[in-house]
Design a protein that fits this description.
Blueprint lengths: L2 H4 L1 H17 L5 H19 L11 H17 L20 H22 L3 H7 L4
């Protein structure tokens, strides 16, 4: 399975949510974003294994990112609907928690790469070029 090929739309949805927060809060860092993504990985991995959902305690901007990303994850899992949801989005097949965790792990890998390459907002600056 190639997560980038098989779930490109999911990755784009997650990154669009992250960019939305970054555009509202220019001081958001990759570390804030990474904290959110890691907590969601733990959550969906636990769920896929049939374990209790771990408590998520995030502060500040990491919590703001979490609110947006969790909403899109829950939408892609088929658990919530979005306000201005286009008709074609209603026909999307819901993902499983293990697939959602895989997508989030791919995002985590990208955050780690771009932070190492370009600094504390390297990932955010990279993805905002692709999300309009």
């Amino acid at each position: 399975m190639n997560v980038e090929e098989d779930y490109l739309d999911v990755l784009q949805n997650i990154e669009a949510s992250i960019v939305t927060v970054h555009l509202q809060h220019r001081n958001l860092t990759d570390a804030d974003t990474l904290a959110c993504i890691e907590s969601l990985i733990r959550r969906y991995t636990a769920e896929a294994r049939g374990k209790a959902k771990p408590a998520i305690t995030l502060n500040g901007l990491a919590n703001d990112v979490n609110e947006k990303v969790e909403l899109i994850c829950e939408f892609r899992l088929g658990r919530v609907t979005l306000e201005k949801q286009p008709e074609e989005m209603q026909m999307i097949k819901p993902l499983t928690p293990d697939v959602m965790a895989l997508c989030l792990k791919r995002i985590r890998k990208s955050i780690e790469f771009w932070t190492k390459k370009d600094g504390r907002q390297g990932y955010l600056n990279y993805i905002k070029e692709f999300v309009k």
